[in-house]
Specification:
NADH Oxidase; 4-stranded antiparallel β-sheet; two-stranded antiparallel ribbon; 6 strands; 17% strand
């Protein structure tokens, strides 16, 4: 296994995929990475819908240009009835944060297994919920197209542009 920082620096958003399906055992490992991701009060409210059939992929592609013809697209949200909410902190909700953690786990695991991905927020959650019959208690947050990167795919030119540590870290 790669060293973590090497893996994190190497991974980039893939926006063009080969049509090859992801083997079931590899997809299972990616989904397991989300299952074991930490969450507020260990509520694990995330809900993942796996789109692989031609019909499901055609639906999602009609709803967003950002499915990128991936052979698999994950619709990721959280169950509002299971998410951690805290009255002591002004009613703060943690479902979306928990989804972001699970998404990060999946993206890094996928990359380590040779699978590209792209965190997508460019879609209408209500349209997606209706198209796939997702319950109203599930708040849809993101899409995660997954697949083998096309042979000529390279990182976006902005991928390696990082802010100085002093701009993002403050020691107190």
């Amino acid at each position: 296994m790669k060293q973590f920082l090497d893996l994190a620096k190497e991974r980039y958003s893939v926006r063009r995929f080969k049509p090859d399906p992801i083997p079931d055992d590899i997809l299972a490992q990616i989904l397991e990475a989300a299952r074991v991701a930490p969450s507020a009060k260990n509520t694990r409210p995330h809900k993942i819908y796996v789109l692989q059939s031609e019909q499901a992929l055609a639906k999602v592609r009609a709803l967003t240009p950002c499915a990128f013809d991936a052979p698999c697209v994950l619709v990721v949200g959280f169950d509002t009835e299971r998410e951690c909410k805290t009255e002591r902190l002004g009613g703060r909700r943690f479902g979306e944060t928990d989804v972001a953690i699970a998404m990060t786990h999946m993206m890094l695991c996928a990359w380590d297994l040779g699978i590209g991905s792209c965190y997508v927020g460019w879609f209408d959650p209500a349209q997606l919920r209706e198209a796939f019959g997702i319950p109203s208690t599930v708040e849809v947050c993101a899409l995660l197209p997954l697949g083998y990167a096309a042979d000529d795919v390279v990182p976006n030119e902005r991928h390696s542009i990082l802010r100085d540590a002093a701009d993002t870290i403050a020691y107190m």
